[in-house]
Amino acid sequence: MINKKVVTRFAPSPTGLFHAGSYRTALFAYIFARQNNGKFILRIEDTDKVRSKKKYEDNIIDSLKWMGLKYDEFYRQSERTEIYRKYLKQLIDSGHAYISKEIPKEPGDREEVIRFKNPNRKVVFQDMVRGQIEFDTTELGDFVIAKSMDEPVFHLVNVIDDLEMGMTHIIRGEDHISNTPRQILIYEAIGAPLPIFAHIPLLLSANRAKLSKRHGAVPVSSYRERGFLPEAIINFMALLGWHPTDDIEILSLEQIIEKFSIERVQKSGAIFDEEKLRWFNKQYIGKLNDNDFIENAKSFLPKWLLPTSDSFKMLLPLLKEKIVSFGDIQVLFESSGELGFINNMQSIDPERLLWKKTPDREVAKKHLIETKLLLDKLDKTSFNTETVRSAIWPYVEKNGKGDVLWPLRMSVTGQDRSPDPFVCISILGKDESLKRISVAISLLEKTS
RNA sequence: GGCUCUAUCGUCUAAUGGUUAGGACACGGCCUUCUCAAGGCUGGAAUCGGGGUUCGACUCCCCGUAGAGUCACCA
Q1: Distance A132 CA to B56 C1' (A)
Q2: N or C: which end of chain A has fewer CB within 10 A?
Q3: Does domain A350-447 sit in CATH 3.30.750.200?
Q4: In strand B, which positions have an atom below 7 A from any protein CB?
């Protein structure tokens, strides 16, 4: 039995912010390694010195860390030139590559590069996702594998590293299918055994183009900034191109690792639709306990609302049920948001104080006056959602919920949509609430 | 254009020769409800087209069509 330990890798080039497309590739490679008790390697492919940026490398590493995808080894290709040179020399010495005179076509082009001597033959390989794939490499020509002995290029370094790092499974995007025959040729020239390939389908933008900076790719870090939970992103992404055998879709990373099977990976590309991610995020937010919720919510709260305050405690259940991502908290508190009334009371049209089923000014006015009286009896220091509710509730039950509560809620919020009036009133406090109710009463008087 | 890959509801997908083609998101309706949500119930919605193979095709084969990827001294 040649039961070699599974080794997979994620090999991004640090030339842009880490986005969903590459993230899903990393996730599948990670899952496959973990479910086989194998190794997962992160390799930064920064041979393009012009486009590679440290900040992008940092972004990739931070995002991976945030998502909880731990790698066992880390490499940077820019630090491995010696190794590549050795192989380059071997390839030239054995006649598989040669130094080629060129006519530069673009600025930066060399007059001399190293090309691979293409044996021009058919290449066949088995892909774990797609089955057998055939290519005729004749059309590829003698492709460039290095700009100079110290500047190897993608195809070469990719193969050498996978070889040197003992890669057993190359799990990467479908966009690499057409690179595979070139790389197989290099493996053969070096005399190395082939790894197993698995090309997973691409993630597509809404217009069906490969997800990229130009086409709707949202950086993972931006989901983090908008208050999404990594568990939700993982769950959502895993289900793009893969599906368990049953219909249970809410899955932790551990459960995914347990159930995952690369043979069940879809062959066709999947459109990245944020709508379902939002749903997943809501599910995961709902599972959070208060402490974790607060921890996540903290940075999105308006300055005046401390997580330790009574106001926050009153708002907590409401926040939990309303938001889809923590970033929504900010929206809620904007002047046009559902909690905007707290700091921005809009002037109201008296007509809006009337409940649709009882559009009578006298009725509305009477209920406002009565509830105001009830509220006035409450002690300021024990003015909270529960005391407010119990003070008014008997009156509400006796006179009809809509008849009493609609004018009350409208008078203190001025908004069509808001939390229930008890929460609103307790948040505003006794003085402010009574003031707003008085204003509403006088509005009804003036016009009637 | 050459080469390669792909094709089930709007979206993510299940069903690997026999199902009333299933689930989820989104959408509509109803219930609940002072509003908005949430929740419950419920509805509409798909096998790209044409040929085969077969007693029987979403499923296998061929031809179209459509989409995607790739054709760098980027990765």
Answers
A1: 29
A2: N
A3: no
A4: 2-8, 10-15, 22-26, 33-38, 67-75
